[in-house]
Design goal:
The complex is a heterotetramer, with two copies of chain A (331 residues) and two copies of chain B (328 residues). Chain A is an alpha/beta fold. Chain A is built from twelve helices and 14 strands. Chain A has helices spanning 6-20, 44-48, 60-72, 91-98, 101-104, 134-138, 151-163, 210-228, 245-255, 270-281, 304-310, 314-324; strands at residues 2-5, 24-28, 53-55, 76-80, 114-118, 144-146, 168-172, 180-183, 196-199, 204-208, 232-236, 239-241, 258-261, 291-293. In chain A, strand 13, helix 10 and strand 14 form a beta-alpha-beta unit. In chain A, helix 3 runs parallel beside helix 4, helix 8 (210-228) crosses helix 12 and helix 9 (245-255) packs across helix 10. The mean pLDDT of chain A is 97. Chain B has eleven helices and seven strands. Chain B is α/β, with parallel strands linked by helices. Chain B starts with 8 loop residues before the first helix and ends in an 18-residue tail after the last helix. The chains are: A alpha/beta (331), B alpha/beta (328). Chains in contact: A-B, A-C, A-D, B-C, B-D, C-D. At the B-D interface, helix 6 of B face helix 6 of D. Bound molecules: thiamine diphosphate (TPP) (2 copies) and magnesium ion (MG) (2 copies). One thiamine diphosphate sits between chains D (71, 119-121, 149-152, 177, 179, 181-183, 244, 248) and A (29, 58, 60, 82, 86, 89). Residues 149-151, 179, 181-182 of chain B line the site of one magnesium ion.
Chain lengths: 331, 328, 331, 328
């Protein structure tokens, strides 16, 4: 085991896969000479040259589409969006070309491509620069969506994503790039579509992912467990699509209660999907309706106090857990 | 005996056949659409045949890439895609080019390096840059021909794709099939420049205006662009002036608010097949009887296509779940 | 009452609102001289001239953004997308500019604009041209999403949408443009956010909207009621966002069972949101988990048989109803 | 006594003050950002002051529209937005231009016709065409100045917006603040044409290249474009060559892999405020002592802004739910 930052873990994954396969290349704004807006690609240009580490103009639709074309004829592009907010100008390319190509071409052309970059809110970036967009990608058949919450998962899942033959939406967190964690010294991958129980518990199942799991949920649970004298089971699906429903349902069959905490907006968010499927498959096991904690249904404001009030936080999580346990906060 | 551009008699006749095949194929499509056998949107190529034949059959090598929009039957046939499979696709059969998944607007053939068939206007232009990028990345000499309509030159992906192609010197030739209209909107009502080749100036890109009614001129000038791209990796923007003899798609009128019957009739005098036939006769390469023979032969071939399609099985129900995720 | 086609109902709404307010104008591809790709704007150019009925180049992002700008300074644009599939190239404009402007500008600039056009599948248009995209718009705070299923609702809701001061996503159905229905002779509007009970029933609540309600559900219910000897309550929310949860919950409190039928894809679709909210607010009233019928989670194929198999149909609806009633189809 | 361009002494000194205010304001922002009082992304305008002052304070009328990208403090100040409210916004206070909703990248002021502050590169260009469209629709004479960076000229919305503006003759002036870099990428590594004014050729649009270190040249040439637009409704594309003296945003280095310390030092010799000051002295319009007095006065004003911002209340919690849907 060695301890690395999330930035380093992602860097290692790209470095190892580029060394392993000549067809893998990285393309995006500032990824080469600038070494990445968030330094995830630091040093890769020096090592692989400007043929394989490529700075692009500000033209997300253009270079996303160029990557899709290159993937159709056998290359394996990694397309970095400086942040996922900027992917919206390339939404048509991802939804209509990347996701549908294999099916629409009747199997003639598949698209082994990874779109990656940071998603969600940082601090004070306001509405256009703080979006958690997993739902609008997971909704689209043909895409897989991955959102790791640890350095180990990030490296292992990014390697699997680069080796996968389908278009992958890989969403990181910019505020976590500096966060450290242990990763194995030997080479490893982590399978797409397999969740993990982060902490065993018996009274409530809590499902969360990415930054809100790492930064909010995991800090909150022990505190809440002590306060309420309960034990919480925490699950990180790690992959949003395909979702590891079995793992969640197995846990709910034991705890009989489910809380989902996500950074995205509530309406037709990923949590709504999990809530529906788990409720329909574990209906008789649920002692309370599934509770969701999401970002409030408003564009995220700049001011720190409003930003905090809009995002999931400990208080909201506590209230949700109290609710599924039918415990009144005042008691 | 000297022939036009020193091309062999066989070559010239093969081109004539290709143009005629496309024409007869499309006429049959119109019939089948009327009978309700072809569904959805179907955009016919009548009048533009010299473009696909001259540019693809004429100027390309088999391993070069071709990509186009939804008006794609002509380019597919000229690239060697089996017309039986195309017809089967239009009828939604399992023997179709995409097993009935894509229909008329989404013809694909990996073996023939025909990469679609794309229905979102302009969205295939960046893909074309990607094929060219891959060719250069692998140090191959393959080039890509990317066809688009005049209307596609007004959308953002046109700007982004051409800038990337010129900036990175990618071997892609962007061909505007300028048939003067996007649906019912004329070029001067949709583009700030009527001379669409001027759009290359924003990228210092090689450009040329080409008469799309002459298969020989199309061949000659596209070939120049292709050869240039093979050697220098530099892209071109070609504005090929042509004309759509039918309505935009099967549900649209041939003329109406946006163009007069007279205009259509006038333009039809420049029918590329007719003009090429006259030239071949003038040059003593073929005579009327050979054209009649060719027409019989090709009509029979088209009938075979229909027969093949009609007799092909529907896709099996499980097909719905196939080709969604590769390797699953 | 007079009987008109859906096309005519929508046309009347635009015509009346343009006559009423000089600031209203219509912009889109082929809306003027061609009289509309689907003839919804037939005759409007002749009546209002090319100043107010405007043909655009194929540049959805450009003219959607131009419309948003015009709305910010007081005009009231109606932007027609020839179909909603083409809105994906304008997704950034709608999500980042239209939806967020009022909030991000701290109330300085609101955006009274209607984006309208046909959505969903027609016949044999294949994957890129058959998308039911309500979920990816309803997910975004700041937008309202309207999907009428009748001529009366279409006219009344479009008039309300044009008068509303917020960005509106108004999704029609191209295969229904010729469908006829009764509308009042006098002027009327229908409020945004208010659903309607299409048919009263006691055993199952069925929620559906737009084409799949009008073309599939309403034809299926009587048949299924007879076959199964049950009575079905059918609800049309008419507006997707804000969703009229109270109406649905009121019905579920009576029927204790809910089936949602939608044309969109399943993962994080609108039905998942309805299922989650209704389950959490009417948990003790539900005798069975909520069932959803959706398009299968694949890009829609061209071939008629595959297209039919992928979309919601009577068999799927029957199975869903059997499921919530715990009745085995074989019985 | 003759003055440059026959402008009044008062006008020239007002412009000097405006440029100096922007400079001092930005320097203060850098300080406050370092202290953690300003959050998120903050893009400073140092070195580009002659552009906003000459183009906006110089060439515009109060009811003309201005829209720009995220590097927006300078344009806002030159358009008359209260610097106290801007500073309060940066500190996330309820007295800020957007009540703490938008922050540095999203300054808005309806009364001053300042329409943002936009953070998605290129996405505000179509909005600008919309303001101009509304002006023409209402038969007003208002024009719109739309500022963008050099990097924004490579994205699709640039192409779509300029085509619509030229095609429909909309009174909008698109101003490229060409500071040679988009973050760390130089113009020649991101655009196929290094002379960005050439991009106007794709739209037959009026164009001009302007020296952005001279507030007088900026004023004179932007004024020409504005007057032209007022009379003819015709748009222009102006390529104003300027330089960003600081890093792209607060978290970026001033120089690094993409430009050398020497280059920055060299460019700073063309500092627009310094050059304008020298000119005013040469022309005998002002002397050193007046500049010192001005500097004192403006530093005091900036301190007032900070004080106002510091002493302003946080937004109330209910504010979170306001301004989401109008009239609700
Ligand atoms: C982004 C987008 N907008 C609108 C459409 C609808 N549409 C299909 S074809 C067409 C006209 C295209 O005209 P042109 O590019 O000249 O090609 P042509 O049909 O003349 O071959 C339009 C508007 C679309 N498919 N994609
Ligand atoms: C669509 C989009 N892509 C990427 C970004 C991230 N980004 C913000 S500013 C910037 C550089 C812009 O450079 P330029 O247009 O020259 O303006 P300047 O910063 O030099 O004023 C980039 C890439 C963004 N905001 N929007
Ligand atoms: Mg055309
Ligand atoms: Mg710049």
């Amino acid at each position: 085991m060695s301890v690395v930052s999330l930035r380093e873990a992602l860097h290692q994954a790209m470095d190892e896969e580029m060394a392993r396969d000549e067809n893998v290349f990285l393309m995006g704004e500032e990824v080469a000479r600038y070494n990445g807006a968030y330094k995830v690609s630091q040093g890769l240009m020096a090592k692989y040259g400007e043929r394989r580490i490529i700075d692009t103009p500000i033209a997300e639709s253009g270079f996303a589409g160029l990557g899709i074309g290159a993937a159709m004829v056998g290359l394996r592009p990694i397309v970095e969006f400086m942040t996922w907010n900027f992917s919206l100008v390339a939404y048509d390319q991802i939804v209509n070309n990347a996701a549908k190509m294999y099916s629409m071409s009747g199997g003639h052309f598949h698209v082994p491509i990874v779109f990656r970059g940071p998603g969600g809110a940082a601090h004070g970036l306001a509405a256009t620069h703080s979006q958690a967009l997993e739902s609008v990608y997971a909704h689209i058949p043909g895409l897989k969506v991955i959102m790791p919450s640890t350095c180990k998962d990030a490296k292992g899942l990014l390697k699997s994503a680069i080796r996968d033959d389908n278009p992958i939406i890989f969403i990181e967190s910019e505020v976590m790039y500096g966060d450290k964690g242990e990763i194995p010294d030997e080479e490893y991958t982590i399978p797409i579509g397999v969740g993990e129980i982060k902490k065993h518990g018996s009274d409530v199942t809590l499902v969360s992912w990415s930054k809100v799991l790492a930064r909010v949920v995991l800090n909150a649970v022990e505190k809440i467990e002590e306060e309420m004298g309960i034990s919480i089971e925490v699950i990180d699906p790690r992959t949003i699509k395909p979702m590891d429903y079995d793992l969640i349902i197995g846990s709910v069959q034991k705890t009989n209660r489910l809380v989902i905490v996500e950074e995205g907006w509530p309406f037709a968010g990923v949590g709504a999907q999990i809530s529906h499927v788990v409720t329909s498959r574990a209906f008789d096991h649920l002692d309370a309706p599934v509770e969701r904690v999401t970002q409030e249904d408003v564009p995220l404001p700049y001011a720190r106090s409003l930003e905090h009030a809009s995002l999931p936080n400990v208080d909201k999580i506590r209230r949700a857990i109290q609710k599924v346990l039918y415990k009144n906060g005042q008691e | 005996m000297s022939t036009p551009l020193g091309l062999s008699r066989e070559t010239l006749l093969r081109w004539y056949d290709d143009m005629l095949l496309v024409r007869r194929f499309e006429e049959k499509c119109a019939q089948l659409y009327g009978m309700g056998k072809i569904m959805g949107f179907c955009h016919l190529y009548n009048g533009q045949e010299a473009v696909s034949t001259g540019a693809i059959m004429g100027a390309l090598q088999p391993d070069d890439y071709v990509i186009t929009a939804y008006r794609d039957h002509g380019q597919a046939i000229s690239k060697g895609v089996n017309p039986k499979a195309i017809m089967a696709e239009l009828l939604g059969k399992s023997t179709g080019t995409t097993k009935g998944k894509g229909g008329s607007m989404h013809i694909f053939d990996r073996e023939k390096n025909f990469l679609g068939g794309h229905a979102i206007v302009g969205s295939h232009l960046p893909l074309a840059a990607g094929f060219a990028f891959a060719s250069k990345y692998r140090k191959e000499k393959r080039v890509c021909l990317c066809f688009m309509g005049d209307g596609a030159t007004n959308i953002g992906d046109f700007h982004e794709a051409l800038n990337l192609a010129a900036l990175w010197k990618l071997p892609v030739i962007y061909i505007i099939e300028n048939n003067l209209y996007s649906m019912g909107t004329s070029v001067e009502r949709s583009s700030a420049v009527e001379d669409l080749s001027k759009k290359a100036l924003a990228f210092d890109m090689r450009k040329e205006v080409i008469d799309g009614s002459s298969v020989l001129e199309v061949y000659e000038k596209v070939k120049k662009a292709v050869d240039h791209a093979r050697v220098t990796y530099e892209p071109s923007l070609l504005d090929i002036r042509t004309y759509r003899q039918r309505g935009h798609s099967m549900s649209d009128p041939i003329h109406g608010h946006y163009r007069t019957k007279e205009e259509v009739e006038e333009k039809k005098k420049n029918d590329p097949i007719h003009l090429f036939g006259e030239l071949l006769k003038k040059e003593g390469i073929a005579d009327e009887s050979q054209f009649e023979e060719a027409d019989k032969r090709i009509k029979a071939l088209v009938e075979e296509c229909v027969e093949f399609a009609e007799n092909s099985p529907e896709p099996s129900p499980e097909e719905l779940w196939k080709d969604v995720y590769y390797g699953e």
